[in-house]
């Protein structure tokens, strides 16, 4: 299976933000541009280290790369944030340098040069160094970025791509990733066997919701006002599902899932096994429904009058026992599914001989607390 995924990962999705081709320079134009670049670098060398946090120092210019050094003090927030993540430190350093000295790096880009970054962070126990080499395409891409956050996101792309196929959890792999025009696209593949009784749309809606909730990187995307697009495929199913999420959904200001659609689907799929006789001839579980106003999946039961009398007036005292009984028949995974979609559950008993009825409701928070107590 991993071999198959590797083949898929090799065919990366095109960036979509294609850089314009390098200018066609004649030998004379190239020589003149190189002379101008040399003069700018001579000025940089004469001035010496420039700026602060980072301090930028020219080191070398060879036939392939421009080499510079950046030194950070620990009181700088960038240095503090990235001392343990050098890939991001190098990319943020590259962004800072290229935009602070854009004339120099623009000429280097036009000449087809790449960049070598030496980033140093002064720590209490001495300097720690980070070394990174970036090709001309990366240099030009970073030069084209209009904000620092975009460089963070691009750094994530560079970090993930060499690891593809990347296992995120269970049987879920990232097979491609792309960032363009405030749209971050992730291709995911599930190696879990496809369940024909579960809608692909629903499967990915639930999976994506979990992925967003448990991924701190979503806050970075929101800072860039970037949308998230997830394209999902599943083993044994030729269909793909594409879902998009706004920055507001990524940071929890809006739900990252269509709660009503999830409620309708869960009620419909759960009802497939009905009717079901309850133990001891108490009655029958007749069907499930979804209450859009209360945001609960409702289990409907028709039971004996005696069963109603046994619960009536004792709903609050019996809530935990009733939920334990519910779990024994429906399973804890079902409750976890409800919690992940921000849905509650309601149990409605109707006497089969009188109008008497009893209702017990559980909010998502109550279900979550119950699940945590069982762990």
What does this structure look like?
With 375 residues, the chain is an alpha+beta fold. It has 15 helices and 14 strands. The strands form three sheets. The protein has a five-stranded mixed β-sheet, sandwiched between helices. The protein is elongated and about 100 Å long. It starts with a helix and ends with a helix.
Q: Return the average pLDDT rounded to an integer.
A: 86
Total E-strand runs: 14
Sheet of most strands = 5 strands, mixed
SSE order: HHEEHHHEEHHEEEHHEEHHEEEHHHEEH
Brief account:
The protein is an alpha+beta fold and 375 residues long. The protein contains 15 helices and 14 strands.
Essential attributes:
375 residues; five-stranded mixed beta sheet; 15 helices; 43% helix; elongated
Structural topology:
Blueprint (H helix, E strand, L loop, with lengths): L1 H9 L16 H21 L7 E7 L3 E8 L4 H6 L3 H15 L1 H9 L3 E10 L2 E9 L1 H9 L3 H13 L5 E4 L2 E9 L2 E8 L9 H14 L3 H7 L3 E8 L2 E9 L1 H4 L8 H12 L5 E2 L5 E9 L4 E8 L1 H7 L3 H16 L1 H9 L3 E8 L5 E6 L1 H11 L1
Parallel strand pairs: 2-3, 7-8, 12-13
Antiparallel strand pairs: 1-2, 3-4, 5-6, 6-7, 8-9, 10-11, 11-12, 13-14
Helix pairs in contact: 2-5, 4-5, 4-7, 5-6, 14-15
